[in-house]
Amino acid sequence: MAGVAPRLLVVEDDDPIRTALRWALEDEGYDVAEAVSGEEAVAAVAAATPDVMVVDLMLGSMDGFAVIREVRRDHDLPIIVVSARADTHDIVAALEAGADDYVTKPFEVKEITARLRALRRRAGAGAPAAGPEQVVLDRAPAAPLVLREAAGTVHRGEEQLPLTLTEFRLLCELAAAPGRVLSRQALLERVWEHGFFGDERIVDVHIRRLRTKVEQDPAAPRIVVTVRGLGYRLDLQ
Fold first, then answer.
1. Which whole number is the average pLDDT over 110-120?
2. Of 2, 67, 97, 121, which one has the greatest count of Cβ atoms within 10 A?
3. Distance CA 134, CA 187 (A)
């Protein structure tokens, strides 16, 4: 179906890898721009926000972690990390910075394109046809917490909360079954689709980030609750 090609920014300082990604992603129908440094990437996003970004972590003076944090200050576009750094600490740190997904080098280009397709499906997913127009997660009189899935927004009173795509989809899945425990594996299958190399810790990282935005006290969550040994449950307040 004809349409405007989605804009994708590849941030990679290795010329052969960057070129291979650009050719493969252009074949997938993306309008690909390139950046060879963190500073160039931030400037490119500020000039024309892409629909999605693929970023390496090892970029020199401004590394990928800093790029992600800077982009996340004002933008909620999907971000995939592609890096040779496979240590658990690096993976968790990238996700904590705001990345949605993480792929280790060496990789198959088809894995990158599959994950990009999954992210774009999530970004374009609307509310279920028969779903409620809104869900009040916290009825605090001064500032109720309201999820509007069809609009893609979460408000605390008059303030719209800056949730990333992944945080928003996690909240929607939990809110679809309030009071019911969802396992980490179930959330992986529903939110990430491809299972994120089977590592359930990605769910914990994004839940922690979600709590910092929706909970009055993230250290003592009342809305997104951990059920030890089982998973997570959303409790309406």
1. 76
2. 67
3. 21
Strand-by-strand arrangement of the 145-148 sheet? 135-138, 145-148, 153-156, 159-160
CA separation for the pair 83, 68 (Å, rounded) = 13
Average pLDDT, the chain: 83
Within 8 A by CB and 6+ apart from 61, the residues are 37, 38, 39
pLDDT for the residue numbered 91: 81
CATH of domain 7-124: 3.40.50.2300
pLDDT at position 227, please? 92
Determine the distance from the C-alpha atom of residue 235 to the mean position of all C-alpha atoms in its chain, rounded to a whole number. Answer: 23
Q: By percentage, how much of the chain surpasses pLDDT 70?
A: 90
Closest CA to 80 of 56, 44, 105: 56
Query: Domain extents for the chain?
Result: 7-124, 135-234
How many helices (H) does the chain have, and how many strands (E)?
Answer: 8, 11
d(CA 134, CA 110): 37
Identity of residue 67? V
What element of type H or E holds 88? Answer: helix 88-97
Q: Tokens 């609307």 belong to which residue? A: 126
Residue type, 230: L
CATH class of 135-234: mainly alpha
